Amino acid sequence: MVIMPTHAQAIASVCICQSLSDMLQPIYLFRYDPVNKQIFILAGIDETIEIIIPENGKIEVLNDE
Question: Taking a C-beta distance cutoff of 8 angstroms, is the pair 12, 57 a contact?
Fold first, then answer.
């Protein structure tokens, strides 16, 4: 059985990736964790932007220097 992200997660991740791209920030890692059911994004020139998108689609920025 394949576990997929929720619709809210999918929309939020596209918005975040588009925003990062608009700011010319590289995206180093984009991963869906099926155990925790969340999306993790590592981005930024120095890999300093860490974003988690849980099942409800609310964006959580963990570290943004």
Answer: yes
CA-to-CA dists, residue 34 to 1, 10, 21, 26, 40, angstroms: 11, 14, 25, 24, 11
Under DSSP, the state recorded for 13 is H
pTM of the predicted structure, to 2 decimals: 0.90
- 14-58 pLDDT, tens digit per residue, is 999 999 999 999 999 999 999 999 999 999 999 999 999 999 999
- Using only the alpha carbons of the chain, give its radius of gyration: 11
Listed by start position, the domains of the chain span 7-63
The neighbour count for residue 3, using CB atoms within 10 Å, is 9
